[in-house]
Amino acid sequence: MVAVGTIIWLSSDLMFFAALFAAYYTIRDVSSTLWANDTSHLNLLFAAINTTVLVLSSFTCQWGVFKAEQGKVARTGKIWQVNTWGLREWFILTYLMGAYFVAGQATEYASLIHEHITIPNDAYGTVFYLTTGFHGMHVTLGLVAFLLMLGRTYITKKFTHEQAVSAIAVSYYWHFVDVVWIGLFATIYLIK
Description:
Blueprint: H1 2-30, H2 32-38, H3 44-69, H4 87-114, H5 123-155, H6 161-190
Helix pairs in contact: 1-5, 1-6, 3-4, 3-6, 4-5, 5-6
Family: Belongs to the cytochrome c oxidase subunit 3 family.
Membrane topology: Multi-pass membrane protein
EC number: 7.1.1.9
């Protein structure tokens, strides 16, 4: 039920992001000269690196799920022996990668604000911060979910099937956030 509920919830969240994409394209269509000026301030290389880290975090998250399905919570070898890692290590790495992404977004925001691209300044700033900000909020909620999941692994004495299902539900959410970002990255940074 948890996995099905997560999928239903993510479907409704998808509609929310669809509305943000629609707003972005609509405002872009009526303000094309504004887009030409303001998109020149975006740092494509920085955003591409940040995107790569987020996309790779989906793989680390999935490796954690594989370990959860095997009932392997913690590593059985040394920390540098990646093949002995369990759910915890993979989810901690995923958490760090997600935190890196959020810090990268904050850095980009600071740079754009310095260039006078802000929400009240013009339509581009408004739609840029709304779309990326709501995504950033979703990433942050995903980081909280990782912390809660990790906390459960330290509190419980025995890792059960229900906890593995929770790890799977967290991974669904994380993969969703990553796929949405790929769409946002293509829309905001690549499509001119």
